Amino acid sequence: xxxxxxxxxxxxxxxxxxxxxxxxxxxxxxxxxxxxxxxxxxxxxxxxxxxxxxxxxxxxxxxxxxxxxxxxxxxxxxxxxxxxxxxxxxxxxxxxxxxxxxxxxxxxxxxxxxxxxxxxxxxxxxxxxxxxxxxxxxxxxxxxxxxxxxxxxxxxxxxxxxxxxxxxxxxxxxxxxxxxxxxxxxxxxxxxxxxxxxxxxxxxxxxxxxxxxxxxxxxxxxxxxxxxxxxxxxxxxxxxxxxxxxxxxxxxxxxxxxxxxxxxxxxxxxxxxxxxxxxxxxxxxxxxxxxxxxxxxxxxxxxxxxxxxxxxxxxxxxxxxxxxxxxxxxxxxxxxxxxxxxxxxxxxxxxxxxxxxxxxxxxxxxxxxxxxxxxxxxxxxxxxxxxxxxxxxxxxxxxxxxxxxxxxxxxxxxxxxxxxxxxxxxxxxxxxxxxxxxxxxxxxxxxxxxxxxxxxxxxxxxxxxxxxxxxxxxxxxxxxxxxxxxxxxxxxxxxxxxxxxxxxxxxxxxxxxxxxxxxxxxxxxxxxxxxxxxxxxxxxxxxxxxxxxxxxxxxxxxxxxxxxxxxxxxxxxxxxxxxxxxxxxxxxxxxxxxxxxxxxxxxxxxxxxxxxxxxxxxxxxxxxxxxxxxxxxxxxxxxxxxxxx
Length: 645
What we know:
There is one protein chain. The chain folds into three domains: 21-31 and 539-642, Immunoglobulin-like (Sandwich); 40-55 and 221-535, Alpha-Beta Barrel (TIM Barrel), CATH 3.20.20; 79-212, Jelly Rolls, CATH 2.60.120.260. It is 18% helix and 31% strand. α9 (440-445) links the parallel β21 and β22.
């Protein structure tokens, strides 16, 4: 066998000029690889939660927006005051005697004469409604002064035409929740919600909410069904949440606190988002864990390592806490207890302190938490290491059953990476989280990255990666890299592309895997690569020899232990077609009726709202055997799934 022969999947090498035929053969002993290799990473950036995956249709429902969230915002952002039928009055925002101390602001609507006054919400770039579907409306209200009168809730077009209406009782003097169901007569992607008071006096309003009844799996306070379904179709084995930079926050006062995100939504504590907007935390820890359960994915929450993001600096308020800062040491015991309480909340019995809170939310059974990330691409300073070790030691001591995932910085090979690995080796951390956003050429040139990693040291989670664009060539470079991850699935246990979601009207970061607005969803070419790997993963890797090695061509072969299917993946990122002669004699008898899926197109091809399926996989029947030939088209990813006898 000459030096150009590749074992255990093709690595990137230079081929003889004009080579177009290759021979591929199973060669070498099979090895077990991680059954959880491909998952997803969710972060609330690009308005991925509010206005995105979270099903709430009312923006700023609790009147908690502020200029600190975003320049020019205030408590009434998203709302307009309206006067109807000759009514005269006012609207203001107050904070005395609130509904809950975590939710301090509420609107006061005044009516000074006959008619009606109200507030109108424009939603997240419009309230998107479908004719014939039912929507649950709710509001907390109390009468502050005057006799008051019934409340009227309306769904209207942008120009004021009625789509649906419901009447609610006149509020009492104490905070109560009032409900109504609305069924619009027409579909409208740019509707408005209007809430009116019809009785003289002053009425307080808070947590004004509108949800489609048809959320994902029909959960109350649930997720946007179509967007959640697109994510579910990735077949992720795990979900990392609630984010990266979001977790350790913009300054220590902005560190994400999971306890503020559970319980009734009116009792959750909203906060500023490091990405320059607002978090209602309606999509909180209960909803994250519930979503994982719904799609059969393992939950992988990440908590801050007692430090804020090294990129902290709040440009909106000009209050700068530049750089990484640590919680005061006096605050660390309470913070560590919060982390321990998270594990009890997820896994503890229903009669435990925090397990009881999970049970009260409707889930008495454990969420079966196995993994916990501590930190996110943190700068490797003494401040970080001291606090990380305190959290790590406490969790490891009390919960040895939990696999802790550490962090080695934001880049593939810098000082933070080297110091992070040194620190991980000193502590014997079970797994570390590597991140890198690089060019497609970097990915194609680094297919050997994990071949030489020490198998006796920490396992690897490639927690964030992307090749900086959504063209097909970028997706193919990632696919080639994923074949290398499969080859090294004994050391790389998890991987997730990032970011996952992008609301195209509120972009913080590109590229992303899935783009959406209120009514449309576009799956990128990168999405389809992730989907094909996620839906066709295996637990056993079958090493292969390739002769000769050619540039920008990669393969992997795995076996699914449940179906016993053999799954062959061939990535051709070059502009020349390749004829591959496949020898699978050593895997046993193969059923001729196989499936071939091809993702192919121009290297710079991508998907858009105008052309959402320009790059999309095509599935065909395929006749397989122990030995066959297949043409792998230029700039394509081919997957052949075969049943063995």
